[in-house]
Write a structure and sequence with these properties.
globular, 38% helix, alpha/beta, six-stranded parallel β-sheet, 5 helices, 16% strand, binds flavin mononucleotide, 6 strands
């Protein structure tokens, strides 16, 4: 039997009622047998300071450890001003440093995102994909999970209620599992 895959899920929002954190919680329930998703919360991560990159704060040490322990990464990003939020970029920057010691290197990944707008984080997701070229990460291409009009797809408790979105997330996670096995 193959070993269960461990995915690390990171949502780029600190907001208590965040749609993206809610979508990540939904993903932990939708992941197929043979894989699990642990969540890393970004709250409390200090702003990146290159002076500290060789002796980073404890939360950064934990982030890099959790990334390295994971077989694959699931990013769930909001779109802020047509890009990813600063808190997510900040986490990406910390874990990519110091030069030559990036925790992201070689990791398979999947991207999804939720927005209250109609475009559903497309622009932010393509910025994130661009970053993955330099990070040497391997994001899967499809399905693209862009959850537009997010306020209509979750209930008041933050449960994902939209069946089409649930199916898309399930497919994304299935593809990520296959992709991760393929990359070995
Ligand atoms: C600073 C800021 C910039 C935003 N820019 C965009 C944007 O460019 N495109 C978009 O679709 N929504 C934008 N929004 C709206 C977000 O989609 C919305 O706040 C969403 O709920 C954020 O994700 P969250 O619910 O996970 O916190 C912006 C929100 C904020 C606070």
């Amino acid at each position: 039997m193959t070993k269960p895959l461990r995915m690390l899920g990171i949502a780029g929002s600190l907001r208590r009622d965040s749609f993206n954190r809610a979508a990540l919680r939904a993903a932990t329930q939708l992941v197929a047998e043979g894989a699990t998703i642990d969540i890393f919360e970004l709250d409390g991560l200090p702003g990146f300071n290159e002076d500290q990159e060789r002796n980073p704060p404890a939360k950064v040490v934990e982030l890099k450890r959790r990334i390295r322990e994971a077989d694959a990464i699931l990013f769930v990003t909001p779109e802020y001003n047509y890009s990813i939020p600063g808190v997510l970029k900040n986490a990406i920057d910390w874990a990519s440093r110091p030069y030559g010691d990036s925790a992201w290197n070689g990791k398979p990944a999947a991207i999804m995102g939720a927005s209250v707008g109609a475009i559903g984080t497309a622009r932010a997701q393509y910025h994130l994909r661009q970053m993955m070229v330099f990070l040497n990460m391997f994001p899967i291409n499809q399905p693209e999970v862009m959850i537009g009009n997010a306020s209509t797809r979750f209930d008041a408790q933050g449960n994902l209620t939209d069946d089409t979105t649930k199916k898309l997330i399930s497919q994304l996670l299935k593809n990520l599992v296959e992709w991760t096995h393929r990359l070995g």
